[in-house]
Amino acid sequence: MSKQLGAFGLFVGALGAVAMAANPAAAWEPSKPVEIVVAAGAGGASDQMARMMQSAIQKNNLMKQPAVVSLKGGASGGEALMYMKSSEGDPHKVLIAYSLIYMLPLSAKIPFNWRELSPVSVIALDQFILWSNTTLPHKNVKEFIAAAKAANPPFKMGGTGSKREDQVLTVFTEKKTGTKFAYLPYKSGGEAATQLVGNHTQANVNNPSENLEVWRAGQVRALCVFDKERMQYKAKVTDKQSWNDIPTCKEEGLDVQYLMLRAMFLPGKVTPDQTAFYVDLFKKLVQTTDYKEYLEKQALKPVFLTGKDMVKFLEEDDALNKNLMTEAGFVAN
Amino acid sequence: MASTDTEIVVEDPNAPSDDSPPVTSVRAVDVVVSLLLLTLALVLAVDNWRTGMSWDFAGPQAGYFPFYLSVILGGACIYGLVGAYRSRAETAQAFVTRDQLRRVLQVFVPTLLFCVFMQWLGLYVASFLLVGGFMWRIGRIVVWKSLLTSALFSLIMFATFEIAFNVIMPKGPVEALFGY
Amino acid sequence: MEAFSLLLHGFSVLLTWKTLALMMVGLVLGIFVGVLPGLGGPNGVAILLPLTFTMDPTSAIVMLSCIYWGALFGGAITSILFNIPGEAWSVATTFDGYPMAQQGRAAEALTAAFTSSFIGSFVAVLLITFLAPSIASFALRFGPPEFFAVYLLTFCSFVGLGREEKHKIVISMTFGLLLAGVGMDTVSGQLRMTFGWSELYRGINFLVAVIGLFGISEILLTMEERLALRGHTARISLGVVLKVWKELPRYWVTLLRSSAIGCWLGITPGGAIAASFMSYNLAKRFAKDKESFGKGRIEGVFAPETAAHASGTAALLPMLALGIPGSGTAAILLGGLLVWGLNPGPLLFVEHKSFVWGLIASMYLGNVVGFLLVLTTVPVFASILRVPFSAVAPMIVVSCAIGAYAIQNAMFDIWWMLLFGVVGYVFKKIGIPLAPFTLALVLGNRAEDAFRLSMIGSGGDLLVFWSNGLVGSIATLALVLLFWPLISSAIQRFRKKEG
Questions:
Q1: Which of A37, A301, B93, C74 is the most exposed place for a label (fewest CB within 10 A)?
Q2: Interface contact flag, B157 C398, Cβ < 8 Å
Q3: Are residues B55 and B125 in the same domain?
Q4: How far is A33 from chain B (nearest CA, A)?
Q5: Which of A4, A15, A68 shows the shortest C-beta gap to B166?
Q6: Of B94, B122, B144, which residue sits at a domain end?
Q7: Which pTM does this prediction carry?
């Protein structure tokens, strides 16, 4: 029943939008449903974020048109990038981007450059944590690394995808400590999590949200977070620990840091007032309680950047990622 | 003991006749398909050989499996071709008769046109044209019945997918007139 | 007892007005597609799948499995009243069902068919209920080598046990495996077989291929035939139902035997067709008066229907438990699970308890509701066949197009659908089986990834597939099945020598 009412609401909303479009003095607004393009499969972190946005926009009435989620996870997300690139000038598609916008063109030679899209805003930064199985005896990073060095065959490290952030982190952990891991690329963070629980891998470098459930169930141990500072969330997540209780890797003697952006992009060649509409939309969105609750639950780092600040951030981040990828030997020639 | 039994009868006025001459034989099509698949296997084998088909220190490279699969596919095709060559004495079984081909094309060509029109007119208008046109021209059903049925069908589809379930389909200028 | 409490939990997930309403909708749609010519279980489910994309997984699977039940029931209607088997496994039902209708006993035959389908699926659901908890307990033992061994077993059993010409099975399977490999390779992150064409980056979606292979090609094949039909209608009265039910206990051996055959063949892939024929033949062999078969004997309806439904239902068990579909429809449901973000396989029973038990509970409920629904509405559905095919055919084409497009919102998929329609038409006519192709397209990537992850883990040592009892016995069984034709002929030769 509520679905039908909702549908009726959409219909009325659509009529409203037509009326608005007829009035040229008003600022630009979407005239049809807005597609939130997800560069990953169903159930992944990007998909969850898109669904959260969809419901937060609807619940708080931030936009007259509905938002629909469109999953384009083919080619490890490359599909979404090509889709955005080919939608030049279409202001009804908005991409949830993450580090793949820098890495995929380098590793898979996909003809894509984020500068061809229109940046809207950076909305959060995602953390990475070194996790191990609770059945293993080592309680901290030092013991873990020592055991990994001694292990033969080498420890297996799970992660999402190949030649991407997870593998980059693994390579840098190897370089800093002189250990060797066998990196197993899984299709999703969820799979990496369950394989760790089943003891088919010894460790993984999942995002907090990907391992949240198994961490709460006491099946995995959080060794350290790959950031300069500890995470800010102090509410208990497991029986004993909060996100804040996890030490940084640097504290533990493993000097590797990596943060992944979560940012919104429009296709290239959209007009400034179209971009302005979305900047405003996401500014309102990040202030909703839905969004704040989501950030805490997923343990994301709150950040909001737009305009020149965002471009500056992207350029620096791009250079950083390029260095990491080159040093790890993941750039295809 | 039986409950009321009435017959349902549906006639097929332009059914294919049984003595229609065959257009081609199963064997001929078998050979053509084998040759096509063999070509595909060759192309893919070359491409995968370029991608890298050797056995790395940690297992096979990206092209390893596809390369050997295309070799197996090619082998199976050649096996089939040799078999077809040897069995040439056998009586040829008809792949499709002329009447049958006509009927198959009667659906296939409109379907193809539907796919083409969908690109510009959107799904719903194209489906109105396909259902209405098919019923009228090929099913020989009275024009008004055909058009009414197809209009109703397209509207129901629109209401179900676009409005009730939020599944977005390609749309064209006609939907745009109504603000969709 | 664990099964029982989990099942109760499943029912509690299910018993909301919304889910019950979806169930009814699913059943009605299912009977509809089961009755229509050129459609049927797998096609119906494939075409209606996009409707469920925006639902939560539990409601979605409940609706889809109800479509499936409906289609199974619907197939029996056309077999008995019109002598048109909607599905290959309903062929055996026509042997005695249609003669019964001709003798004016249509209502009796239909009741027999519905009742026995009900019994068949009920037995299979009971089996699933009691096997499922033990699956969950060994779920976590599955790592990459175990997964690969299971995939290998599936592929090998198709090649070794398939009845078609071997080289055609191999062609079908390797073609499917190759197409599955197009796009990004997960393990190396490299693009392959795309020829630099960005439309190929995302690979070829299996559901799009299925809609073309089964939906479009079926329309083309149906058009080739003479579409005139002549049949009976029937209204089922309470008296007839009671009369048939009174006879049931006399046939308990047949019912039990057919259920057992169905369950067994359903769990091993590709079984429903074989199950229905096998149990028909066995019923005939054990009967005292073999001549009365084929002339309208009620047992001839009981046997194949029970087996077909038992196997259709049992086919869902390997799909849920191992991620290996036992039938075409199960393969499509598997595609659906992936779309909703659920990974079928042993871990599903651990991670998504509510989902799994909601599904199992819906099998009970859907079966009962479906049974009552068909008993009361047969005349309505039988009259669907009055609608001329020239109206039905284009509507099916449109539904296929909607289904194909909605999966990835890609216009290009429409062309894939059309291409696979032609491929399916040609393959069916020259005897290349489609089932291995579909299976390869679904499992290809996962099998390859599992193999390569095993290799990375073991440092390139193939012995990892014999590293423990579980994986070793599966891998050995797979090789035995692959070479089964050679082995069995060797055994026969050996026996002849002895004799």
A1: B93
A2: yes
A3: no
A4: 9
A5: A68
A6: B94
A7: 0.81
- Measure CB to CB from residue C459 to each of A153, A199, A200 and give the nearest one: A153
- With H, G, I as helix, E, B as strand and everything else as coil, classify residue C119: helix
Q: Is residue B77 part of a domain?
A: yes
Q: Please indicate if any CB of chain C lies within 8 Å of the CB of A191.
A: yes
C81: nearest Cα among C63, C72, C68, C94? C94
Among B47, B78, B94, where does a domain finish? Answer: B94
Look up the domain containing B34 and give its range: 22-94
Residue type for position C50: P
ipTM of the complex: 0.91
Count of domains observed in chain B: 2
Structural domain containing residue C193: 2-498
pLDDT (tens digit per residue) in B41-74? 999 999 988 888 887 766 788 888 899 999 999 9
Domains and CATH numbers, chain A: 2-126+260-328 (3.40.190.150), 129-245 (3.40.190.10)
pLDDT for the residue numbered A247 = 95
Residues B86 and B133 in one domain: no
pLDDT band at C60 (very low <50, low <70, confident <90, very high): confident
Handedness of CA B120, B124, B129, B134 (dihedral sign): positive
Are B180 and A15 in contact (CB < 8 Å)?
A: no
- Which residues in chain B have their CB less than 8 angstroms from residue A3's CB? 164
Contacts of C343 (CB under 8 A, 6+ apart): A188, A190, A191, C323, C337
Q: Given pLDDT bands bounded at 50, 70 and 90, which one contains residue B7?
A: low
Q: Are residues B170 and B142 in the same domain?
A: yes
Q: Nearest CA of chain A to the CA of C95: how many Å?
A: 46
**Cβ-defined contact of A42 to C340 (cutoff 8 Å):** yes
B33 within some domain: yes
Mean pLDDT across the stretch A192-200? Answer: 86
A33 touches chain B (CB under 8 A): yes
pLDDT digits (tens, 9 = 90+) for C407-432: 777 889 999 999 999 999 999 889 89
Nearest CA in chain A to B175: A32
CB-based contact, C18 to chain B, within 8 Å: no
Residue type, C92: A
Our count of domains for chain C comes to 1
Distance CA A159, CA A201 (A): 10
Based on the fold, state whether residues B138 and B123 are members of the same structural domain.
yes
| 8 Å CB contact of B76 and C231 | no
One domain, residues B167 and B112: yes
Closest CA to C119 of C328, C303, C356: C303
CB nearest A14 (choices: B166, B168, B180): B180
As a whole number, mean pLDDT of residues A19-24 equals 44
Q: What is the model's pLDDT at position B115?
A: 94
The alpha carbon dihedral of C3, C8, C12, C14 has a sign of positive
Same domain? For B59 and B130 the reply is no
Whole-number Cα distances in Å, C398 to B173, C50, C86 = 19, 13, 21
CA neighbours closer than 13 Å in the CB half-sphere of residue C91? 10
Separation in Å, CA of A194 to nearest CA in chain B: 23
What letter does residue C462 receive in the DSSP assignment? Answer: G
Structure tokens at C103: 């003798």
The confidence score (pLDDT) of residue A119 equals 95
Residue A2 has pLDDT above 50, yes or no: no
Co-location of B83 and B112 in the same domain: no
**Residue whose entry in the numeric block shows the structure tokens 């509690």:** C12
Q: Are residues B79 and B140 located together in one domain of the fold? A: no
pLDDT tens across C358-386, in order? 888 888 888 888 888 888 887 777 777 77
* B-C Cβ pairs (cutoff 8 Å, strict): 240
Give me the residues of C, 193-212, that contact B with CB < 8 A.
Answer: 193, 195
Chain C residues in contact with B9 by the CB 8 A cut-off are 229-231
Whether residue B169 lies inside any domain: the answer is yes
Higher pLDDT, C339 or C108: C108
Q: Quick count: other Cβ atoms within 10 Å of Cβ C139?
A: 18
Residues linked to residue A293 through DSSP beta bridges, in sequence order: none
